[in-house]
Amino acid sequence: MASLKLNLSAAALIGSLLMAASPALAEAVLHRGNAGEPQTLDQHHTSINIEAFILKDLYEGLTIYDASAKIVPGVAETWELSDDGTVYTFKLRADAKWSDGSPVTAEDFVFSFRRVEDPKTAAGYANILFPIKNAEKVNKGEVPTDQLGVKAIDEKTVEITLERPTPFFLELLAHQTALPVSKASVEKNGADFVKPGVMVSNGAFTLQAHVPNDSLTVVKNANYWDAANVKLDKVIFYPIDDQAASVRRFEAKEMDLVYNFSADQIDRLRTSYGEQVHVSPSLATYYYAFDTRQEPYSDVRVRQALSMAVDRDFLAKEIYAGSQLPAYSMVPPGIESYGEPSKAEFGTLSQLDREDKAIALMKEAGYGEGGKPLDIELRYNTNPNHERVATAVADMWKNTFGAKVSLVNLDVSSHYAYLQEGGKFNVARAGWQADYADAENFLALSVGSNKTFNYGHFENAEFDGLMKKSYDEQDPAARSKLMHDAEALLMKEQPIAPLLTQADLWLVASRVKGWADNAPNEHLSKFLSIAE
User: Fold this and answer.
1) Measured between alpha carbons, how far is 120 from 205 in angstroms, rounded to an integer?
2) Which helix H or strand E contains 416, and what residues bound it?
3) Which of 156, 216, 294, 296 is 20 to 30 A off residue 85, Cα-Cα?
């Protein structure tokens, strides 16, 4: 009996050691491919989704998107809206803390919103919060920041007053621009507040390390109010814009998520990985912008002709394997409050008829065969799909007009930085994914006063006037009509050529749980877990 007891004790000891080393008790690490290096980790200078994926893991706004992209409470546990729809009162969670253990306060949000709109900050996305009272005036330097319609009623109550009722305001508050900063940290550290070891954040994770162009690591925030329900210990973001390399690392089980893989791989990947391949319809438009500041792109006939000559069906079917749809409107379909978008008139013509009309327009403008030569520089951000699109479009313009097209590509951060800083170009690739499900989000890109995202510097008083009226219109049907009229004008002028309505392409390893495809493309790591 003694011998039996000894053997049982030894077996128990060995079993406990094995359990301690088992995957169930190992560190839960999610490896996320992120399609490019972020330009910034300062939420008030951010502009692209690969930054948002990181920032929304590090910080939490008043509202957030849940796994299915429904707006739910974030730092704000509850809120009330005044009868006239212009005053929101948010109650912050009593246990909401910064990663250094200090409380998240109403004053932090007042400081953050003022910082966004302060012209000294030069926030490229400041306009997204212009529905807040005096935000635009503050941003233009017309009134001081303390006139912004955001105030702290007490330590845990934030009151936000709007210029007018804004049905999608709660969605705006879930945008990365509305993420708070720690007032104490920014005042102490200045621009260095974004660095590992310095950053104080209030989201589910904190910044542990950042090696540019290699990896960015975030770890679970023990002081997060909902830390008990965060199942991941660590998330490592890999800024890989080489799609083939990303897929290889997924196949080698080195990455759990891959964003924006090459569309020509869809069939092969589906054969090998089945339901791990996700093609998710999105409120997003893939388009080319023309620099309207210079000839010949200042001529509407040239813009129309170049747009008409692009065979969108070929791009959708041959390059994107049917995962994208041809687009003839800037606003994508699927926005309930807007209905069917206003499309370019040539969208109803056959491709052959479009090309004939395009040749006539170009000839009338004095360019192309028999006229001035067309030398076009086409810029795009580094990506095999974008390269294939650019190569195909260059061939279309060459075959239709005898144009000589040269291609220029930069990494995603440099490409958008160049466009946002006003760099001159001929034609440039761009894409826009809805920040909120409203047509205004797409149409506002072309308003003359939008210095950040109106890449082609389009100026049209009639278009701007229609958009201004839409902001003041309270009747939903009348507002929609104004925006449809604005989009019809935009599609006639073609300062931008919508090419495709996009879908998001993701590879999601079967060990990742909690993933849900959704049109806004919102995937907070706090809702994900790993099953070994």
Assistant:
1) 29
2) helix 412-420
3) 156
